[in-house]
Specification:
There is one protein chain. With about 140 residues, this protein is mainly α. It has one domain. The protein has 9 helices and no strands. The longest helix has 21 residues. Pfam families: Xre-like-HTH, Xre_MbcA_ParS_C. InterPro entries: Antitox_Xre, Xre-like_HTH, Xre/MbcA/ParS-like_toxin-bd. Keywords: Plasmid.
Length: about 140
């Protein structure tokens, strides 16, 4: 699975802060509140043509409040880190951003025809289900 430094990279956390690249460093960054720009970055990576996508992760009114403080809540950071893990593995499996996006935004039979992106955003268990599907694709069992 994807390492903590790779998740930090996807989230755009500074490489010059090695503390944020370990498991507990990433956890501390999330608890302290990830920068709002991490959300903007994830939205741009996942849905570059959808300016409203970030509001699926954080409702618009909440996003506007977060922008003034420049920090996300811990729960929002956890959701973002989960998405970063899935995005990183999807890129690893599919090799291109376009194909990774295609997988995430297309209904999948193993998710009762729900889109992987929606399942990941919804819950931690949903994120694990999608990571399992991606792991099966990467390591060769049917998905």
């Amino acid at each position: 699975m994807m390492g903590f430094a790779a998740v930090a990279d996807v989230l755009g956390l500074p490489a010059r802060e090695p503390a944020s690249r370990s498991a507990f460093g990433l956890l501390s960054s999330i608890e302290a509140g990830l920068p709002v720009k991490a959300l903007d970055r994830m939205a741009l990576l996942l849905a570059p043509d959808d300016t409203q996508f970030k509001y699926k992760l954080v409702p618009k009114a909440t996003y506007e409040r977060r922008k003034s403080k420049h920090r996300l809540s811990s729960d929002e950071g956890i959701r973002l880190a989960r998405l970063a893990r899935v995005w990183g593995l999807a890129l690893d499996v599919w090799q291109t951003e376009a194909e990774a996006r295609d997988f995430l935004f297309r209904p999948h039979a193993m998710l009762e025809d729900r889109r992987p992106i929606d399942v990941v955003i919804q819950s931690e268990i949903g994120g694990e289900l999608v990571l399992d599907i991606l792991g099966s694709l990467k390591y060769g069992s049917a998905a």
